[in-house]
UniProtKB/TrEMBL annotation:
The lineage of its organism: Bacteria, Pseudomonadati, Pseudomonadota, Gammaproteobacteria, Enterobacterales. Keywords: Membrane, Transmembrane, Transmembrane helix. This is Uncharacterized protein. It comes from the Bacteria. The chain crosses the membrane at residues 6-26, 38-59, 86-104.
């Protein structure tokens, strides 16, 4: 069910949100309740599970050819996989940076 092309963008969106939320909760630190820590752990687990599915799906979509065979040393295959992975990593880094900024901003807010 999760291996459909229509779900690639929502999975990337959820994983990006999960990165940002986990970074926000982590930077918020001592103010966090037990429920907040459970939410952070749940976000990390969901991120790892969905990211695993996402990366496998993206690699399989690139490797899918009409004859069913692709060499892993093919330059087009390697460049497509690396481009997809780099785009996803940039999205995750941006989301976690934004979440960390807002978490730290709230933590170190002066009255």
């Amino acid at each position: 069910m999760l291996h459909t092309a229509a779900l690639i963008a929502p999975i990337i969106g959820y994983c990006s949100f999960s990165c940002g939320m986990t970074s926000y909760l982590w930077c918020k630190g001592k103010e966090l309740s037990k429920l907040g820590w459970v939410l952070a752990i749940f976000n990390v687990a969901a991120f790892l599970y969905l990211n695993h599915i996402l990366l496998i799906d993206l690699i399989q979509r690139v490797a899918d050819t009409s004859d069913g065979y692709i060499s892993i040393f093919d330059d087009d295959f390697v460049s497509d996989v690396s481009r997809n992975t780099i785009q996803i990593m940039i999205t995750y880094i941006a989301a976690s940076t934004a979440g960390g900024y807002f978490g730290a901003k709230k933590k170190f807010k002066q009255d």
